[in-house]
Amino acid sequence: MEMIDVKILGIVDNYKKSDEYKTDWGFSVAISMDHYNIIFDTGNDPEILKHNMKKLNLDDKNRNIDLLFISHNHSDHTGGIKYFSNNFYLNNIAIPYDIDKNILELVSSLRNTRTMNIKSPTTLDMNIHTTGIIGEDIKEQSLVIETKKGLVLFVGCSHPGISKIIETVQNTFNDRIHFLIGGFHFYKLNEDKLQNEIDYLKNSDIDFIAPTHCTGDRAKNILKRDLAERFVEFGVGYKINI
């Protein structure tokens, strides 16, 4: 099977590369490959999304988006769905099966768009997969892309626990995780739990880790110190090539 190169660009995040972009409590990234392009989550505020899309030169209204991937049913990840549905051609949408009724009605009404209500691990295209829904309370899916260097794992907020998501990926896919990116939801953890999670990531065999969004400033600074060269800075305007 031919492996692919992946390019990642931050669109909406709590952090930014420069002052020309706007930050928000939310998350959205553009993922591009030779044969495919993906929007992972859509942020919270459509106006901030629109501003950053324009600054990043991603606002071409004739552009096709091969896959719009929604990690979970929280507004800081679903707030820009209408912006994308109104301004771009969406070929496929992968949403959790328990998505908000209004969002389901919106995406189901789109012509020439295939809507996939995700529950189980699913191959979405060549080398592109969803973990399926993980978690009991807040249900969440994560995106997995196979590359030459290993798996790239995109997480939204990691509500089920980042360790549980990682272990699910390791048990599902026959490859190691090369790159992990997204919100880890560490900002509410007490000292002991935070240290346990940080130790787990530090002791993992993941090559590079980009903690962002709801990870929290304190946890992010500790990870930057402890992960050393494995830590990758990310936010609006940051570009990563894998």
TrEMBL record:
Coiled coil: none annotated. SUPFAM superfamilies: Metallo-hydrolase/oxidoreductase. The keyword Hydrolase applies. Gene3D superfamilies: Ribonuclease Z/Hydroxyacylglutathione hydrolase-like. One of its GO terms (molecular function) is hydrolase activity. Keywords: Hydrolase. Residues 34-100 form the Metallo-beta-lactamase domain. InterPro entries: DHPS-like_MBL-fold, Metallo-B-lactamas, Metallo-beta-lactamase_dom, RibonucZ/Hydroxyglut_hydro. The keyword Cell wall biogenesis/degradation does not apply. Pfam families: Lactamase_B. This is MBL fold metallo-hydrolase. It comes from Geotoga petraea.
